[in-house]
């Protein structure tokens, strides 16, 4: 068994609240905390099965020092990756496929930094002006460049190397977004007048989607743009005009869109609105959930754990498919063991391990124990076929600071890489644990550690 230890979390800490309908279904499992509670300084960015965020590497009381790190989390493999450990005053992450971008101070300049997940390379897009608020789609990166009051929208094509200025004239332009061949941004034309501009990169057609009296940050997908404006959440497109999704006496912020789902924070809960039938579902912890991002299979958001300390939460849309696995207490500790993994963790921390299951394996036995019966730990298994199994002290019929269970399938357990998360659910200080695994072929009557 190979060990992979990272500081990540896989525990349910919030409650899904019933909304006005069930149009956006969510899994019974979750939400899961996927980042160690820290001073998260950005909204999460999300695409496919990846979540990207920035957090302070200083204590919450010294987060103003600008010592930041860039993290990514893969919801399929349940693994966290530290992309960049030192990023001075990093802000505004975004992600599309294998490309991630953010802004970062580099000496006396503020540059856009591009990271490629496939190659692991980091590239700074340095220009003569100040660069802020990057967004990426299909290899194209857009950002606002210049000082407040005279900003322009710039686009860089990573495939051709072309660098273009998309905004025209001397109008202050900012808060861009790009999806496919469509770019949107905001133009300030003086006083309280702002316009949300849409540009088709193929035809060159430029449209004014809406006007507003407040600076906003539109997000676009499928030709529709959303933004929060004066306590309302608005949706606009060239074909449908402007529509109000939510209004009234409430605090609303962080509106985002992906396909037919719009999400935003409203009075500290995340609201997910299905454009197909107009129904809304609420998730997240009351007065603590903000800045949502939409993945292919779920929603991520920032949640305040306590004053100045935040985590990233992830809630899947649907439950994993039925695994067909049978779980029962192990008859006895297996007689043969070739090794045991040991670790220590505090409350809220998680030790991750990769388990490579051999073809032909029909059963896996787990012997997991910890030193203090007053502490509570759990073990969660995530299989390549989508199975998610979570065990706690009482699941084997005994409360003895240990879990001894067998997972079997006569047809064979799906071979490949499984992941095991050991989580400190309730820990007084710090607890030691040990975990031993045994592969079994019950048809042949053998087990091996």
| Number of alpha- plus pi-helical segments | 0
CATH level-two architecture of the largest domain: 6 Propeller
CATH homologous superfamily name of the largest domain? TolB, C-terminal domain
What is the molecular shape? elongated
Which range best describes the helical content: under 10%, 10-25%, 25-40%, 40-55%, 55-70% or over 70%? under 10%
Biggest beta-sheet profile:
6 strands, antiparallel
What Rg do the Cα atoms give? 24 Å
**CATH overall fold name of the largest domain:** Neuraminidase
Give the C-level CATH assignment of the largest domain.
Answer: Mainly Beta
Class by alpha and beta content: mainly beta
Number of domains: 2
Instruction: Extract low-pLDDT stretches.
Output: 1-23
End-to-end gap: 9 Å
Extended strand count: 39
The fraction of residues assigned to DSSP E strands is: over 45%
Average the pLDDT over all residues and give the rounded result: 83
